[in-house]
Specification:
Strand content: under 5%
Structural class: mainly alpha
Number of strands: 0
Mean pLDDT: 87
Distance between the termini: 64 Å
CATH architecture: Up-down Bundle
CATH class: Mainly Alpha
Largest sheet: none
Length: 176
């Protein structure tokens, strides 16, 4: 073979190798970009889920504190002051419950186990709020019966806040 043909074959082989190398490099770059995008998206979703859990915990804690304050008042203050606290409590919970439902909805995208645990906390809070609200209403008709029952709910309210923090802490530690 003559040197020109060998040079031409070498040039063609080099050009083909260059094209294939470019294609492979482009494919690898696209693959890497897609992986980085998926990871960034997963990180963003986790950040949103974390924030929704923290917001729900904060809102449950605010509601629990309102419950505990009402219960403490029922055990220490005169009836008229407790009635004032009951009105404040009612106002606070009217503001807090929609926030809880909103935070609960934001957290609904979490895994099933986390959501079920959160749902149980929210249900417990609603049950305790309903119970306290009923007893607050009874302050007008049977205060001697209602006051000690309200006062006995302080521990339950504080436990609810503690449970919310511990539950969310556990989910944040085990997630991603």
């Amino acid at each position: 073979m003559d040197a020109a043909v060998i040079g031409l074959i070498g040039g063609v082989a080099g050009a083909i190798a260059g094209l294939l190398g470019g294609l492979i490099a482009g494919w690898q770059q696209r693959l890497g970009e897609a992986q980085r995008w998926r990871q960034a998206r997963a990180d963003e979703i986790w950040k949103d889920e974390r924030l929704s859990l923290l917001e729900l915990t904060k809102t449950i804690s605010v509601g629990s504190q309102a419950m505990a304050w009402l219960a403490w008042s029922a055990g220490t203050k005169p009836l008229e002051k407790v009635k004032e606290e009951a009105e404040l409590y009612d106002t606070r919970m009217r503001d807090i419950l929609p926030q809880i439902f909103s935070a609960q909805a934001a957290a609904s995208g979490l895994d099933d186990q986390t959501y079920e645990t959160i749902q149980a906390l929210v249900n417990h809070m609603i049950d305790l709020d309903t119970f306290l609200g009923t007893k607050c209403f009874e302050l007008n008709s049977v205060p001697d019966t209602a006051l000690p029952i309200i006062a006995d709910q302080e521990r339950a309210a504080l436990d609810l806040a503690r449970q919310a923090v511990e539950t969310v802490r556990g989910h944040l530690r085990t997630a991603k």
